[in-house]
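ARCHIVE CARD
Drawer: 12
Card no.: 0347
Subject: one protein chain, sequence and derived structure
Cross-reference: see card 0346
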Amino acid sequence: MSGRSRAFLPALAVAVLFGLPLVAEIVGARLLVFRDAQITHWPWHRVAAAALDRGEVPFINAAASGGQPLLANPNAVLLYPTFLLERVIAPESAFNLHFLLHVFWAFLGARVLARRLGMGDAAAFVAGISFAFSGMVLSYGSAFMNSSAAASWLPWCAAALVDVGRAMGRGALVRAATAAGLALGLQLLAGEPALSLLTLVFGGVLVLAETLGAPPGTRIRRQAAAAAACLGAGALALALAAPLLLPLRAVFPMTYRGQHLYSERASGAAAFSASRAIEWLFPRFGGDPDLLGGGANWLRAIALDDVVYIWCVTFGIVPLLLVGLAALRKEFWNRRSAALAGGGILALLFSFGFALPFYRLLYSVEALRKLRYPIKFYLLTTLCVALLAGLGAEAMERRRTGRREQAALAAVLALFAAGWWMASPGGVLDRWAGPLAESASGDPAKFLEVFRGLVRGDALIGALATLAIALLLKRRPARGAGWAVGLIALVLSFSWGLPLFVSAPARTLARPPALLHRIQGPGRLYVSPGLPKFDLEALKADAAGGLPRTSRVARIVVEELVPLTAAPFGVRYLFENDPDGSYGFFNRVVSEAVDASTPPDRDRLLALYGGRWILAQDSDSHPLFHARTGLEVAGRRLVLFEHPRPVAELRWAGRVWRRAALSGTIELVRSDRFDPHDGVALPGGRDEEPAGPAATARLEDVQVGSDRAAATIAADGAGNLVFARTFFNAWHARVDGRPVPIAVANARDLAVAVPKGRHHVEIEYDRSPFRRGVALQAAALVLAAAVAARPRG
């Protein structure tokens, strides 16, 4: 087999084997709906596509929380190349392909990195499979657009930085730095800064290791050249990602992350725990995400109110066996394997968060405190284990198993047998999970039955994998065993990996919600924080005797209008469902005030910020809104309320209050003293009440868009034009063509002071950072193309 065939045919086999079970998702017949895929990424992309269809750049998402920056939101992944797919093929197919292609890209990248580290083709194949089809990468690849892309670029960036450390001569160094800059830039465009920082740390260690291996006489010169090349690569990466980074820089100070200092609990959320190590050998112990029940993750999330960020943390049964067996051999250990093992363990220690003291070092740095989720370090551990698995596959091909390896395999088989026994009816698993299932599941008996089946299935698969490895190791010499091991690892990963890709029929999700015709026109919708909730008994009818499926719930959350699931149908929300606070700091503050207010005060705030409709349970009280209609969804009665006199999105305010503190502003605007139709509360050095009667004005030629507003105002006194958009410094205003400042109105919105008389007022989101970013990106691409076109000397 030629070298090209050895590279192409295995990759083709992986693509075919991975793609066949997901054909419906690839062609767009089904849409991925697990976690963020449905509630944020899909709506955001639909809003952006609608803006492009109108000939607009999607600077602002007018469907979310009073208008939130969209292009500058890294989580939206709008400036990443795969977004272009949605312009040329079916959106559902393009959306799904973003996730699936990056799993394959992670495989190719890990394989390339393994080859850079000196492994043969078969060992590199095993390393690629072990990384791409690990629990960490597939958990990212099934739910998070930004994390899946960033994780897939990690090995590519590392491989390019290895080339930087090894480059001899100026031309080779420039080419390696350019490749590293392109890979890092695309990872930055994916929009996951924590993974990019981890990539820089990992890649920096690889560069240092390569330069330390240089002859003593040239070591310092090589290190200086590599450092300069890394700086050049970083500059190229920043330029390539400038269309995202510059707009983000303009708004970040007023985002929730930019203003908020996370507590220790929030910063260390979703850490790895020792109990989750059971998923290494029993990957589905965490459950099947398409079942509403059936796993420990589900029990923690519902019964214990625990944040489960990464659904499955397994490295894969086969990779673990390879690493464990190889580690028993003295000849396996050298500087390379010891460094990978040490790096993986160190990253694992950080992934425990505050359970161990290491993560506290990061928490002491204010900028790093904002990154959160220490389990992200586990991605580095996963990559190190994958590379060690590749080295283990090479070691396996060199020598047959000895007594120690045979004893280890027997112990693993015994462990799986014990797992099978503990998952028997009435066994240890039932006694542990029973009390939690009673409090968290509507059908604890069925829950336990499914849970037992998942664990027993993992025990059987693990035993088969162990026997397969034992048989391969008995061959002498074990030529070609690496390729066979890689394929076995791939196929076995499907048992727990494919269920992560939860999907629902695209046609079902494309059907408009029943209440859509009731919420047409100006105004925003507020959905009670109590949604989505549903009666599990109502979902059992189509569960065929088993547990209800998440894919069925995907349609329910659309019918319940859970933010932002109805944004593709034109619904605009008062507050979205983003756990990071809907991006805007002021928006997060007032949303928390809404949650903490009494029913009358809450309704006043909802009306003030543009709320016209409320969808809530029929037991909820909304005294200032009128009930218009009701419907039953998943066994629950919901009521749609409407305000009799909604506040205009662009309005005149002739009565001005001033408050020295944000809390004082919120207290004022939710009281019955404040009339949102003609009043505005602005920041001030001290608290001031309105002086005299309210000035009145007539608004003419009113224009309102997602990222702009304009009107001609004829006023009999000084006042303010209020625009219902969340305040960011990127908003600019002009009165009669002259720039004027914008103030924070009513603790969230925009206000422009307008003097007496007739004036033309324009409010517009600043486009200049994006334009500068595009220019820098174009220059970076031209430079990279010039380097690529330069002949090698």
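Annotation on reverse: Residues 444-474 form the longest helix (31 residues). Residues 650-770 form one domain.
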